[in-house]
């Protein structure tokens, strides 16, 4: 596989990053994951907007122009023959002698790589996934897409140890924030789509934005507010959204089936509508 490091396209085994890189020492870096369908990037403009927001919040410089980033993403997709999959990009503050204070005028590090994987014919989307609830022990700026992902990794492992696919995380008041790497939704028995409102508590998902726009156009009712695990257990449907899984049915929470334990009608409709738009650019 060819990867990208600071302007160079090299075989992955030849790629080098400094041991002093602050991404490595402090998780002082941000990232984006864009999906690829039919060899083309999906909603990459949205990911670029969020990348700049993350960089600004951390007073971090952009490594190069958006046009250069996108050209490199496209070259990687072509060089690695990616038809369906992901492009990962990460910007860190750069390498400097270890010091908590941000160094001035360091050159940011930019790395990118691709992952080929089937996204459309995903059997998990036919059956849905199960989640368990766990406390949200992440830091207080979850709106910034940083590479500090240790707690989501731990939560995912704990979910798997409990026989589930993923964890839905809960704030101190017992309300669900989001999944380990996705935004969480229910559809109530009255057909209302409920998802937590945007704040520092959750990542502002690019797929979330697109799916809510699609839902509004389809005249579906939406409430952006916190919801509890009990509401999930009483819901008609549940699902999550992310760039890599699109709209994914959730059919079980904490060992209990949601409705009949099968993917819901509105969930499937939103998945189909989202994929259609994603494929047509
Ligand atoms: N929430 C978290 C914590 C995430 O890590 C992600 C994506 O990786 C999302 C939500 C979904 O965001 P997007 O739709 O932009 O992929």
CA-based gyration radius: 19 Å
The CATH class designation of the largest domain is Alpha Beta
Distance between the termini: 26 Å
The distinct bound ligands, ions and cofactors come out as:
pyridoxal-5'-phosphate
Largest sheet: 9 strands, mixed
What's the architecture of the largest domain in CATH terms?
A: Alpha-Beta Barrel
EC number: 2.6.1.42
Pfam family, one: Aminotran_4
GO biological process, one term: branched-chain amino acid biosynthetic process
InterPro entries: Aminotrans_IV (IPR001544), Aminotrans_IV_CS (IPR018300), Aminotransferase-like (IPR036038), BCAT-like_C (IPR043132), BCAT-like_N (IPR043131), Class-IV_PLP-Dep_Aminotrnsfr (IPR050571)
Observed structural traits:
binds pyridoxal-5'-phosphate; globular; six-stranded antiparallel β-sheet; single chain; alpha+beta; D-amino Acid Aminotransferase, Chain A, domain 1; 2 domains; 281 residues; Aminotrans_IV_CS
Concise description?
The chain is an alpha+beta fold and 281 residues long.
How do the strands and helices of this protein lay out in sequence?
Blueprint: E1 2-5, E2 8-11, H1 22-26, E3 29-37, E4 40-41, H2 44-57, H3 66-79, E5 85-92, E6 109-116, H4 123-127, E7 129-135, H5 150-161, E8 166-170, E9 176-179, E10 183-187, E11 192-195, H6 206-217, E12 221-224, H7 229-233, E13 237-242, E14 246-253, E15 256-257, H8 265-279
Parallel strand pairs: 7-8, 7-14, 11-12
Antiparallel strand pairs: 1-2, 1-6, 3-4, 3-5, 5-6, 8-9, 10-11, 10-13, 13-14, 14-15
The structure holds pyridoxal-5'-phosphate.
């Amino acid at each position: 596989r060819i990867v990208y490091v600071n302007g160079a396209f090299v075989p992955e085994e030849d790629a080098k990053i400094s041991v002093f890189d602050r991404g490595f020492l402090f998780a002082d870096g941000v990232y984006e994951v864009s999906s690829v369908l039919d060899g083309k990037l999906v909603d990459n403009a949205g990911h670029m907007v969020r990348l700049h927001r993350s960089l600004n919040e951390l007073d971090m410089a952009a490594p190069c122009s958006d046009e250069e980033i996108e050209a490199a993403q496209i070259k990687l997709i072509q060089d690695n023959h990616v038809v369906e999959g992901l492009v990962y990009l990460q910007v860190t503050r750069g390498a400097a002698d270890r010091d908590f204070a941000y160094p001035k005028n360091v050159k940011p590090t930019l790395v990118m790589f691709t992952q080929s994987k089937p996204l459309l014919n995903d059997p998990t989307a036919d059956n849905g996934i199960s989640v368990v609830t766990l406390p949200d022990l992440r830091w207080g700026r979850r709106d910034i897409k940083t590479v500090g992902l240790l707690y989501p990794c731990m939560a995912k492992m704990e979910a798997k140890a409990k026989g589930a696919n993923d964890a839905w995380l809960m704030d101190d008041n017992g309300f669900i924030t989001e999944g380990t790497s996705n935004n969480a939704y229910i559809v109530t028995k009255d057909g209302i789509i409920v998802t937590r409102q945007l704040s520092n508590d959750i990542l502002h998902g690019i797929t979330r934005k697109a799916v809510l726009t699609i839902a509004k156009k389809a005249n579906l009712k939406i409430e952006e507010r916190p919801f509890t695990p009990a509401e999930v257990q009483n819901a008609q449907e549940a699902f999550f959204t992310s760039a890599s899984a699109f709209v994914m049915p959730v059919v079980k929470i904490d060992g209990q089936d949601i409705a009949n334990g099968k993917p819901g009608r509105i969930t499937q409709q939103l998945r189909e509508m989202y994929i259609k738009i994603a494929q047509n650019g």
